What does this fold into?
Amino acid sequence: MQNKFLNRCLRGAGLAVLLLACVLVIRTLSFTAPPVADGEPEPLDLDARAIATHLSEAIQFRTVSSQLTQSDTQREFHNFIDWLAATYPEVHAAIPPQRLSKQDGQVFSLLFTWPGKNSELPAILLSAHYDVVPVIPGTEIEWQHPPYAGTVDDTHIWGRGALDDKSAAIALMEAATGLLRQGYQPERTVYISLTSDEEIGGEQGTAAVVKKLQSEGVQLDWSLDEGSFLLHGFIPGVDAPIASINVAEKGYLTVDLVAHGQGGHSSMPPPETAVDILAQALVRLNRNPMPGGLEGLSQKLFDAAARHMPFEKRLMFANQWLFGSGIEAELEKQGSTAAMLRTTTAPTMLSASVKENVLPIEAIATVNFRLHPRDSIDDVLQHVERVIDDERIDVVMRSGNSASRVSSDEAPGFQLLADTSRALFGPVIAAPGLTIAGTDSRRYEEVADNNYRFNPMLVTREDVHGFHGTNERISIDNMVKATGFYQALIRNANL
It folds into this structure.
């Protein structure tokens, strides 16, 4: 009897395993990418060397917005604006820009208004910033080419701003010039915004653009600004570039943790100093991150990418009800993908005693959080208080912005961006994404139905090290395709 019962159990277990395997395979086989049109993108009839030269010249202006209080830097901004007018005379003649923002009494941000033939169609806005972050003093020797030389070699343009974000500003000017030379006038009004203070928060640039549009009663169909790229080689197992057209960006919250302790001489320390108390709090925050998971925007991005993976990886993503925790554990191992799953916690600054042999009465840690759209500022503050749970520590909010609104990835504007990416770069994977850092384009949501964050340039892991770092560069081919992208986008936005 026991043997018969055991055999029945084994047969039942075997059937269950077989059934599970069938379910997994069937779900995986149906979890495939949609068909992609064959064919190479059409070659662009653009002067690659001229475009590269213009970006090179733009990089040579040291438009460092964090130094705008200095007269030498203000001169660099004025000189850049004069150079822009001299380099793109057709644009400035046909659609002369308005100077909108003020910084220390100076006006540096530009808004070009290209009137459309059909006033019934809502306008669109294409935006970029031409200010840059400074080069960290002492790191100049680490650059392959001097950071403000704008060196052009056989394949790339090098220098501060090559990726962030003078490349987009120059590509927009090149695109508008090409269309104007063809006698083109858009059906709907196109605004082109070139702002001067994104790297210090955009309090003057985008804010002034928004105020101007509001004063004229303009409600945009959509806006396009920086925030992501065509990402190549960022997700293992996916060979095709991913056009991450970001439909939202994270919020920003900075708090000070102020730990209170007993002061005195360092030769007679108490069992716990203010530094000890603060250190324990930071460890608790590190070990107890905000809740997260592969859902929402992150889910959409990985769902689109995973359909192009080999069978064994597709099997896991097609059956997240079984493998979800394992997938999330793998994504958590890399900072760039972990940041897409949750609100991140990053201690960035520390201060305590004024002297090496004096016990501090207070020890302070500054912690920066990047808020996932699912979390509010209050959610994070409550989480910090709950995790630290120590009356000897005050949690003091320094500054904060909520995450942006999530724009539609089903609206015509999103589809136009996806289609234009495929037309210029070939069979790419287009998907909505989340900007894990911050931009000043969040302000455009006050005057636009949808806001998208995407630069039409293909970048690799090696390229992204240049963001705010050393050896920033962009390929000449990227600049040509970005110019072609903006031309096609403006033309097709009329449909």
Q: What stands out?
A: The CA atoms of residues 243 and 442 lie 20 Å apart. The radius of gyration is 26 Å. The chain has a mean pLDDT of 93. DSSP finds 15 helices and 20 strands in the chain.
